[in-house]
Amino acid sequence: MIKIRVPGTSANVGPGFDAFGLALTIYNTFSFEEKSDGKLTIRGVDKKYQGTTNLVYRSMQKVFKKAGHHSKGLYIHSDVGIPISRGLGSSATCIVGGLFGANALIGSPLTTEELFDIAVEMEGHPDNVAPAIFGGLVVSLTDQGKNFYIKSEIHPTFEFYAIVPDFPLSTSDARQVLPKKINFSDATHNLPRATMTYLALVNGSEEILRVSMKDRLHQPYRKKLIAHYDVITRKARDMGCLNTCISGAGPTILAINSVNNPGFLNEMSVYLKEKVPGWQLIPLFPDNAGVQILRG
Ligand code: HSE
What class of enzyme is it (predicted)? Predict the structure, then answer.
């Protein structure tokens, strides 16, 4: 039996659209066993995900194919801790869990870099799978079919809160509302803000982070899909939180708070409960470890 733990991720972090991703202390854990009964058994998920279209299973097949391995039977169990279709990288965890689980099951013939390449190909962009694999705050790019990343650790002055609604939003719906073209001024607006957001998160520059996260590439279009977005983000700022953004493609709102503002947790919990029931607040820290093989 192999057990793989994969962190959830928050992509974009405001102005870093399709570039930044941050691994957080919220996890999906997958268990794998090869069987000789010729059957595929998938547990821990809804019935509709228990067949060969299951994303964890499909990811495993990619590794088996590349390694020339023929599996007779498989048991997969998912222990799901990350809300689904909420912008917290749950599909990236399925891909990464399946790839690393399959590789570990057959004696690790593929390197981490090879698994990263397959994960990017499957997900279509690297900003969730890169932090899910490597942990920390990751900026990544694909150039001429090759994937590159730089990982940094977030400064300990920051803590994170996922403010999660009770409705899902699919990434494809959230990409459909984006414009085909953007103004030159919107591109130049984002460039220094993205760079300074990354550096502020690493250096612990709270005052920079308060102003650097305004985005003009995706959030103005996407926030219309998220009921209560404006009021919740305004309240978060009123409660002294440093900044907020849409987590990945949404609909979760990521709040970045200073550890020196400990009242935020209670104030926001009470506000959500009283004014926007259905939303939940999940306190989180950065995960610097990335994917972990817990037992092998
Ligand atoms: N960067 C992607 C997007 C992340 O914002 O569409 C989605 O998982």
Answer: transferase
